[in-house]
Design goal:
316 residues; alpha/beta; eight-stranded parallel beta barrel; 13 helices; 52% helix; globular
Length: 316
């Protein structure tokens, strides 16, 4: 009889509670708990305001890193709130242009209207794509749970009819990704490859382990050989080393691809990528909707739980 590792138990528990809206609401409404958990979250986010995020963006740029900024939020089921979120993303794009930042924008389509109506999401995403094009930057559509993937892919296809600066995120752990990648390579816009973090049914997604790592490596090599703009988004040292060896072996040009990592997670790997001469981008989210994000960061690397406890307990 196999015994589940305690870290796996903790990771699965965090993924489960991350979707509990009652717990999320309680952490936001209770000022004391909010402040304690915010101290843990700050390691992984750019702050709760755009001004704070821009300060961190400038600091990262001084270190030689590009940034992708995300105003955190998803599953916005109210049209007015979706419009407000779209307005905030427009502020981000305007700030990128005004401060001449080496930055792009990441977003969830459910944050700007997809949870209300697909046409609303398309209108808002189109407005953001147009503003980003005028500012000389890109939009990256993040991926969500499997119940929304078909809608997200369909919207990306429609956006690509008018814009070439809208990217899409694909998750290597999903068994459908082979077909989604083949389709995405026929469209403009950067492709961001991630392992995948949502809690999905076993028949839909591969669990963490060697099978998933082999799948990620295969997709990564297809992207690198395609000469299509892409972001290799992983912190896995074995995959980063495999990518480096593959690039050198194939004598690939460095321009179309970049490596992307999450803010506050394995910064030493980020510096390693830069030292190898590759373009490195940091995913930097901000806003008050950090509860889900914090749960995911701790679940992906359970030893971070100890660090989070230390951050939460730290006193100014």
């Amino acid at each position: 009889m196999s015994v589940e590792h305690p870290e796996d138990v903790a990771a699965n528990a965090l993924r489960h509670i991350s979707r509990d809206q009652a717990i999320k609401a309680y952490t936001q409404e209770n000022a004391a708990i909010h402040e304690v958990l915010l101290r843990a979250a700050r390691r992984f986010i750019g702050g709760e305001t755009l001004a704070e995020c821009l300060e961190t963006t400038r600091a990262l740029q001084e270190q030689g890193c590009a940034v992708t900024i995300d105003y955190m939020g998803e599953n916005t089921d109210d049209e007015m709130m979706a419009q407000q979120a779209t307005g905030e993303f427009l502020r981000v794009i305007q700030a990128i242009a005004a401060h001449k930042l080496d930055a792009t924008v990441s977003l969830d389509l459910s944050h700007i209207g997809l949870a209300v109506d697909a046409e609303l999401a398309l209108r808002n995403a189109s407005a953001l794509a147009q503003a980003a094009r005028a500012a000389g930057t890109e939009i990256m559509i993040s991926m969500e749970g499997t119940e929304r993937i078909d809608e997200i892919i369909a919207l990306h296809q429609r956006l690509c009819e008018d814009y070439d600066n809208v990217g899409i995120t694909l998750q290597a752990y999903l068994r459908r990704t082979t077909n989604d990648l083949s389709s995405a390579l026929q469209r403009p816009g950067r492709i961001r490859l991630v392992k995948g973090t949502f809690e999905e049914a076993p028949g839909v997604a591969e669990p963490r382990g060697e099978i998933l790592n082999r799948g990620y490596r295969d997709y990564m090599e297809i992207l690198l050989l395609s000469d299509h703009p892409c972001s290799i988004a992983t912190h896995d040292l074995n995959l980063l080393n495999a990518a480096h060896k593959f690039i050198r072996r194939q004598k690939l040009k460095k321009h179309p691809f970049e490596f992307e990592m999450l803010y506050g997670v394995t910064p030493e790997h980020l510096q390693m990528v830069r030292a190898r001469g590759y373009r490195a981008r940091v995913y930097l989210p901000y806003g008050r909707e950090w509860y889900l994000y914090l749960c995911h960061r701790l679940a992906e690397y359970p030893p971070n739980i100890y660090r989070a406890i230390g951050d939460a307990a730290a006193m100014d």
